[in-house]
## 1
Amino acid sequence: MDTMRDRFAPVVSRLLDEDPRVAVVLAEIGTDGFAEAERKHPDRVINVGIREQLLVGAGAGLALTGMRPVVHTFASFLVERPFEQVKLDLGHQDVGAVLVSAAASFDWPAGGFTHMSPGDVALLDTLDGWTVHVPGHPDEAETLLRHAVGAGDDRVYVRLSVQSNQRGLAVDGARFLTVREGRGGVVVAVGPLLDAVLDATEGLDVTVLYATTVRPFDAASLRRATEAAGADVVLVEPYLAGTSTAAANDALADAPHRVLGLGVGRGELRRYGTVEEHVAAHGLDARSLRERITGFLAGAGARVRS
């Protein structure tokens, strides 16, 4: 199966052909995928070199002229390193762009901590007006990329990962999907963690919601699910643990509830290892998730089907 990032350049190259407003801004990363597009659209495929602050600033400048810039590099270089430009050049000037990241929280362990960005979504949460898509499959990435580029002049972040579920679902860029229904609690699985959550909750009487658009947070779907399944909620996110707990608490502010946020821990893992080893070390593999989910729900009398 191809990866989400494998889909990125072909999809955006087609969008360059279809829409004269679309431009692509790169900082060396990913240039090979746009070689043909650059020959066809030399004025709309721009490589600024290894200058990530300029990467975002150039995208904002294009947006000020009416273009729809798609800005791409690793997450740590796209959100964290040029955060001031994200905050001011895009947010303060109130212009839009589509930021598309690669490497996610720890997709390239050999790159070390400089190439890891578990805090990217939490950092964007400090700013107003961002839509955040976290696809869990290449098909979903293609859908959400098209949705992001076509979203008027909004500010959109699309978080791509080499981690993937086995199959893509029909996502719409807004709502959570109900994948499994139960009565003993709600587990929200974000993006590429759906398969692990489904394995972890097999036999448990819980509702599983699937989220690929996490900002704006789909409060209505969570409220409906808790009305039927009980007000204990577990959020399982492929980035910093607890990133969405405030959003879930706000969604359920008028009802008694408990929320557990699972995700990437704050501690730095100082060995390269593999992606799978990082997943397990952060407790995001199916076995660890089952222990943590059942332990949390046990206090509410979660039911397990025989």
## 2
Amino acid sequence: MRIMASATFPLPTRARPIVTLTVNPALDISTSTAQVIKDHKMRCGPSRIDPGGGGVNVARTIQSLGGDALAIYAAGGLTGATYRQLLEAENVPSVVVPIDGTTRESFTVDEGGSGEQFRFVLQGPEFSEAEWRSCLAALEAAIVPGGYVVASGSLPPGVPTNFYAQVARLAHQRGARSIIDTSGDALAAALAEGVYLVKPSLRELSELVGRELSTEQAEVDAAAELVARGSAQLVALTLGDQGAVLASAAGVIRLPVPHVQVQSAVGAGDAFLGAFVWRLSQGRDPEAAFRSAVCAGSATAAKPATEMCAIAEVEALEKLLPEATRY
């Protein structure tokens, strides 16, 4: 299996480098219509296409904030070729792992009348064992001791459930810190291996600890439990408009989200993670990185489609955040 580095953009070099891995990227198509009506042909407004997917969006965020990250991703078919062109146009350094299948698409429709957003995410292409192993090989070649490895997004058909656990193991073996952002059995397997940072939603955290989390204290206790278990050194629980919680060996803190006019939730969680790891790579402490992450998620939610936030927007929102609540 050939692995292609971008011929246009050099791989980034930095003291604490960041590498992201996306095995199931998606070409994000966004548009709008006045009203979504069953069985009707709905005329749409202007459309926009972005290169999406967890790890790629993390790298795009870091790029937008003024940092560097190497994005490793699998791509194939005509959709994959378009995807690569779009990412290169954003000057994101990348390594492409070719696959026989066609890169998937996702489709987002904003309903003008109600302000609701409808998201349709297609299943990814079937991977052969050789293809997913090539993704791991590309990652292993790119890991730098002391750096960060961010593996994010869903797993396409054919990729084993323990894939992200293998990613975490590779990072540990190479002296790097692993950040995993996925869900279900793949997330549970990665946490059984042990990771540096994990970013579950409330539903995902509830599944991990095996109980309903119906109070603020229950949320705090569950996040702290993952740290106590050794599943993750940092647990960033994202709660949408209810803010976010950060648990570590130093304790648990909570931040609200700054108020913004939300345009699109697509990519907001990835922006949160991108800002978090970028600040960590700069030597910021986890609490300072967490503040930037909360603001980056909000700033991205205020953008259309899958457009990522800018550093000035993040810094402006940081000035509005109160001190964290400590537990």
## 3
Amino acid sequence: MESIDNQWKKFLEEGDNLSFSLIYKKHIDELFSYGISLGIPTEICKDALQDTFYKLYITREKLHHVENITAYIFKTFKNCLINLNKKERHREKIVSFPNSFSIQVTVLDDIISNEKAELIKKKVESLLSKLTPNQREAVYLKYMIGLQHKEIAEVLNINEESARKLLYRAMEKLREYASQDNHPESLFLFTLLYLIR
């Protein structure tokens, strides 16, 4: 199968709908999970997905500068989420954009037995809850989605060095909390997730 970068090139140069479809299929589930993890309601996530890919499709002639399609799609999606959430908030007079980032740990179910998976899942979620929202988001983008530091920086609108530091500090905090709370299995999970990528 062709790489996403090759499919992106083909879509830009030839307007190839099959390539666009493959890009869509590759990213749709990860984007939806990302939106839910940001604390955005399901319907707004669905609308943002539609807006993101519609915008991508109709503006392709102007997107030849985009080198990393995955980072670009995540950044565009996040901006759509923010804009749609603001409109919805204005309509419903909700106080503010959710300032949380939660990660639902589901990878464990495929790795170990359900009983132990639930226990470790709770421990990992407990550890993650001690991180700042930005740290949780960076950990999610790195270990759940598999983005590189440069891509994470683009999605979070920070420079690459800041993304590296953010992830480093997050992992240091996780190690510290895991050792304090005696959760060595949780650190094993993060190591495993890193090696899987």
